[in-house]
């Protein structure tokens, strides 16, 4: 049963409480029609974009994207992740772990790049999944990603005081105050974190181009500090530390924990590459998407990989791996050394710049995700509005900025860190699947089951490999089961490649070595999802439940109204022509 609003003759499920209750009775039929309804590329680039009113200005070039990509990836976390992965898993071979993780990040970035070139809109992964798998899968993944962004940004803003204060000899406790009436984990009030978030919100709301300039300046300072730390490590370090541990009873050599240590280390440090996905949400503001996006995304991942590998070598030369402080490897290496204490302050200042750049890029990305979800009507279209003077999604930026600031005000860093990562990895997994589906399933009425069956079988095989890697005891049986799983996965890909031909080859820019490249990304993200702790899955389940409720009680009805009003009915567009005219 559909409901008609008497005010304008259009369909509305929210004109009154009685009408809304009547609409709820139509939820099953609406759900069956809307949940897997796919959008079209022309729809995303024309009618839906028009819902924002003003267009975002195309002012970004490839060098802006490289700067934003580097700023988004190289945050303060790398100073911690490097030491933890080296001490616990890889030893000096942490440099190989970073190289492996960088290669995998590049493969995943290729999947984003192909979509962003052919669909240069602000929605990023949300739009890619919506034009492939439908409305509900897109909202489910996009909303989870936004929650991850908000939690991560709140955590990053609180770490700003933790790094900047000690760099100037000021204790973190001086910047915060305790409210005893609040429970532990929520009782340390951090007003500086709130000010940082609100300041970044103002910057990204004013102008994307100006935000890019601010990011360029801060990223330049941050890289300068990183290069300084790398140089100091090479000058003060000793190449013997790459081979010999401090204690003879510990494993020695460049690969003290073998191949398993390298890959376990890669799984941990891969999270240091998260951030390039935010660059894809800026595709709508890029002057020449076909040329600028591949260079910007891939170039930023390549540069960051080189920086990370050099940092890893530098740190491994400073101290034997079994003496590295997993929480503050660089600062601890210089602390206590005569005449070198000042280097720890440089590390703190450099990390502070990294915090600001990663926060700026992430908040740019989260606002654009919310903007395009608003265009789809799954959330109120108010979020989709573009300000006529700034050409930025001010509504989405302000709402998420205030939400992030509220969390950053009182929520402890450790509480927040237990809530991040899983949504981002899940989106990477979905984008890789979507790319294979788009390439191998013909447009129009056709049977997608061969491709869907392949994606399901490959995911199951990757999951089996991950469970064996994580749970099975060391020994020949584990090695055999891992080898068997790998052979089965490779066989599945080979059979699919031989039996199912590509139906849609890209005309502008395409991922090479299909379907192997996205398959590696699928495997990697499943492997990394298996490395996350239980609280991450509790968070994922809780927020996923909220997302489903929002869709059932609001989203599916709002999009059904839009469909009934003709908002989703579009003429066939020439997307290629639009791109070449940009």
UniProtKB/TrEMBL annotation:
Keywords assigned by UniProt?
Membrane, Transmembrane, Transmembrane helix
The membrane spanning regions, by residue number, are: 62-81, 88-110, 189-207, 214-235, 255-276, 297-319, 346-371, 392-410, 416-437, 449-469, 475-496, 508-530, 536-554
Please give the chief subcellular localization of this protein: membrane
Q: Does the keyword tRNA processing apply?
A: no
**What does the UniProt entry say about where the protein is found?**
Membrane
Return the InterPro entries for the record.
AA/rel_permease1, CAT_C
Q: Which Pfam families match?
A: AA_permease_2, AA_permease_C
Give an example GO molecular function: amino acid transmembrane transporter activity
Query: Which residue ranges does the record assign to the Cationic amino acid transporter C-terminal domain?
Result: 509-558
Membrane topology listed for this record: Multi-pass membrane protein
Show the GO cellular component annotation of the record: plasma membrane
Q: Does the keyword Transmembrane apply?
A: yes
Family assignment from sequence similarity: Belongs to the amino acid-polyamine-organocation (APC) superfamily. Cationic amino acid transporter (CAT) (TC 2.A.3.3) family.
Please state what the protein is called: Cationic amino acid transporter 6, chloroplastic
Q: Which organism is it from?
A: Raphanus sativus
The uppermost taxa in this organism's lineage are: Eukaryota, Viridiplantae, Streptophyta, Embryophyta, Tracheophyta
């Amino acid at each position: 049963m559909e409901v008609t609003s008497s005010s304008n003759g259009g369909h509305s499920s929210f004109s009154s409480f009685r009408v809304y209750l009547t609409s709820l009775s139509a939820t099953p039929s609406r759900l069956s029609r809307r949940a897997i309804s796919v959008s079209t590329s022309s729809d995303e680039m024309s009618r839906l974009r028009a819902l924002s009113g003003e267009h975002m200005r195309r002012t970004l070039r490839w060098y802006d994207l490289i700067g934003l990509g580097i700023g988004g990836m190289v945050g303060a976390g790398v100073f911690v992740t490097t030491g933890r992965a080296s001490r616990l898993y890889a030893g000096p071979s942490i440099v190989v772990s970073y190289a492996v993780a960088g290669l995998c990040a590049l493969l995943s970035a290729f999947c984003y790049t192909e979509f962003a070139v052919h669909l240069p809109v602000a929605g990023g992964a949300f739009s890619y999944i919506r034009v492939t798998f439908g409305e509900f899968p897109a909202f489910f993944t996009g909303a989870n990603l936004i929650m991850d962004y908000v939690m991560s940004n709140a955590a990053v803003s609180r770490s700003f005081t933790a790094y900047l204060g000690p760099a100037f000899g000021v204790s973190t406790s001086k910047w915060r105050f305790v409210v005893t009436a609040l429970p532990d984990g929520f009782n340390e009030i951090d007003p500086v974190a709130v000010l940082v978030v609100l300041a970044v919100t103002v910057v990204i709301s004013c102008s994307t181009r100006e935000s890019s300039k601010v990011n360029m300046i801060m990223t330049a300072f941050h890289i300068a500090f990183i290069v300084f730390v790398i140089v100091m490590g090479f000058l003060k370090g000793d190449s013997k530390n790459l081979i010999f541990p401090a204690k003879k009873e510990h494993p020695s050599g460049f690969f003290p924990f073998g191949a398993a240590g390298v890959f376990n280390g890669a799984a941990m440090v891969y999270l240091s590459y998260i951030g390039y996905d935010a660059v894809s949400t800026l595709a709508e503001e890029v002057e020449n998407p076909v040329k600028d996006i591949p260079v910007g995304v891939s170039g930023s991942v390549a540069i960051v990989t080189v920086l990370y590998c050099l940092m890893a070598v530098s740190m491994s030369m400073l101290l034997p791996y079994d003496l590295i402080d997993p929480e503050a490897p660089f600062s601890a290496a210089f602390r206590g050394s005569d005449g070198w204490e000042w280097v720890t302050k440089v590390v703190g200042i450099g990390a502070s710049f990294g915090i600001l750049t990663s926060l700026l890029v992430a908040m740019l990305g989260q606002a654009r995700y919310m903007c395009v979800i608003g265009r789809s009507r799954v959330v109120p279209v108010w979020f989709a509005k573009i300000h006529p003077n700034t050409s930025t999604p001010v509504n989405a930026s302000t709402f998420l900025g205030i939400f992030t600031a509220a969390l950053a005000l009182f929520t402890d860093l450790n509480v927040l860190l237990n809530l991040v990562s899983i949504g981002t990895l899940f989106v990477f997994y979905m984008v890789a699947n979507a790319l294979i589906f788009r390439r191998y399933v013909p447009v129009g009425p056709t049977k997608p089951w061969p491709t869907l069956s392949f994606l399901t079988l490959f995911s199951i095989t990757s999951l089996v490999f991950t469970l064996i890697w994580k749970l099975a005891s060391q020994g020949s049986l584990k090695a055999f089961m891992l080898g068997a799983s790998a052979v089965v996965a490779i066989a599945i890909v080979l059979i699919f490649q031989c039996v199912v031909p590509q139906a849609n080859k890209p005309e502008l820019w395409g991922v090479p070595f299909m379907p192997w490249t996205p398959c590696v990304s699928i495997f990697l993200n499943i492997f990394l999802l298996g490395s996350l702790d239980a609280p991450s899955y509790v968070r994922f389940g809780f927020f996923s439940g909220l997302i489903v409720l929002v869709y059932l009680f609001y989203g599916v009805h709002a999009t059904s109204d839009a469909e009934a009003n003709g908002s989703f009915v579009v003429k066939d567009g020439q997307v290629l022509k639009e791109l070449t005219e940009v």
